[in-house]
User: Which sequence fits this backbone?
């Protein structure tokens, strides 16, 4: 293997994902080739960068809140709520679609408005009033 | 002792509706998942919401879990998909906004979780990697998954994972030296 081929395989080699023959080839090449050794060290630095990111811990109440949310969904609270919001939201969405088309029929979105259903209603209102 | 239960035993518990087993899965995976999702999508509040969503999905999907894949791989697959949905949602939102509002809209507002300068620099570099390269590299370097496991999570081949990780590392080095 020449340097170019070695350098393409160093990433997997460093992850111990190369097969034995290739690993041996890379190992002996790196021992003698300063350029490829440097290349390997540069990969190490890239990994070190990611490993230096802080590890966050969830707030102590997170697990409890997750259980509560599960229990709420099991008791059907969530389904009722979403039915209620859907009843309001679906006609509103249809209205907005028609409204925007009326304003600027040329501006066709790649995405149908229905897919935007999970956006916060406030930002929809913001866009609405900006348009007015 | 309960504490010593394996992931598989806990998922079996969840399958039979045991909320105690579910809570242990939450406690075992919450930090790992949050850190992965946060680094992948770059926004802490959404990352916390998605982390919670992952666990609710784990509960829902547990009956169909088959031990062909490791529990951790299965959970990360759920996390990856929900996070990817969030990235796509944001992208649609940006297209939508750009279509109707002239001004630039910053979806990623002030980031309270980012505590140090170097962390925000790294996060900015990460943000510039293609989504699948970022996911693969984080799963390898920070989560220690094997290429085979990552291929299961990303639903691709092992050689594709090798290529993603190689390109991600190369990209990271170039972005960093800029
Ligand atoms: Zn060489």
Assistant:
């Amino acid at each position: 293997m020449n340097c170019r081929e070695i350098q393409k395989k160093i990433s997997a080699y460093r992850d111990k994902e190369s097969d034995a023959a290739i690993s041996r080839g890379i190992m002996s090449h790196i021992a003698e080739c300063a350029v490829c050794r440097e290349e390997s060290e540069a990969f190490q630095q890239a990994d070190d960068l990611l490993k230096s990111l802080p590890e966050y811990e969830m707030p102590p109440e997170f697990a409890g809140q997750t259980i509560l949310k599960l229990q709420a969904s099991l008791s059907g609270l969530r389904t009722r709520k979403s039915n209620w919001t859907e009843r309001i939201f679906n006609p509103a969405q249809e209205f907005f679609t028609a409204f925007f088309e009326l304003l600027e029929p040329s501006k066709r979105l790649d995405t149908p408005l229905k897919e935007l259903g999970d956006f916060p209603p406030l930002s929809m209102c913001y866009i609405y009033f900006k348009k007015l | 002792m309960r504490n010593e239960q394996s992931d598989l035993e806990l998922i079996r518990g969840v399958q039979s509706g045991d909320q105690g087993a579910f809570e242990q899965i939450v406690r075992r995976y919450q930090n790992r998942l949050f850190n992965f999702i946060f680094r992948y999508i770059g926004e802490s509040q959404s990352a916390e919401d998605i982390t919670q969503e992952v666990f609710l999905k784990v509960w829902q999907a547990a009956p169909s879990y088959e031990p062909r894949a490791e529990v951790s791989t299965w959970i990360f697959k759920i996390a990856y998909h929900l996070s990817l949905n969030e990235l796509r949602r944001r992208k649609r939102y940006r297209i939508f906004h750009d279509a109707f509002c002239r001004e630039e809209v910053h979806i990623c507002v002030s980031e309270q979780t980012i505590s140090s300068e170097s962390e925000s620099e790294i996060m900015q570099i990460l943000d510039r990697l293609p989504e699948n390269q970022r996911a693969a590299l984080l799963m390898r370097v920070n989560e220690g998954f094997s290429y085979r496991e990552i291929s299961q999570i990303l639903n691709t081949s092992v050689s594709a994972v090798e290529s993603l990780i190689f390109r991600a590392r190369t990209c990271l080095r170039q972005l960093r030296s800029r």
